[in-house]
Write a structure and sequence with these properties.
Elements lengths: L1 H14 L10 E5 L2 E2 H12 L2 E3 L9 E2 L2 E5 L1 H9 L4 E7 L2 E6 L9
Parallel strand pairs: 3-7
Antiparallel strand pairs: 1-5, 2-4, 6-7
Helix pairs in contact: 2-3
């Protein structure tokens, strides 16, 4: 079992880009659909790991993201208006998080 774990860890390290890769311009072709599916497609196209474990993501629609842009730009476009944002937690690893809801304004 240890050999299988080592092989899996090696695969993750090989797929994860160097830290500068987040700033590189890449070609994206992500179709509209469910946000969870679009995040999987973005991760595959950018060769990054995306932690999108919130089940609500499967219920939200996503927009198409097409063209040359950075990973940050693609994630920002994909998540715009969804109530979610992202943060890099390691080189080549992104976590999708719900944006905090601002407290109601007092009049």
């Amino acid at each position: 079992m240890r050999a299988a774990e080592a092989a899996g860890a090696f695969l993750i390290l090989c797929v994860a880009p160097a830290p500068a890769a987040a700033a590189q311009t890449l070609q994206f072709d992500i179709r509209p659909g469910r946000l969870s599916d679009a995040l999987v497609a973005l991760g595959e196209q950018a060769r990054i790991t995306i932690d999108a474990s919130d089940p609500v993501l499967a219920t939200l629609p996503s927009r198409a993201v097409r063209g040359r842009m950075t990973v940050d730009g693609a994630l920002a476009r994909l998540l715009a208006g969804t109530g979610y944002s992202f943060r890099f937690v390691a080189p080549g690893a992104v976590r999708i998080v719900r944006r905090p809801v601002p407290p109601p304004r007092r009049l």
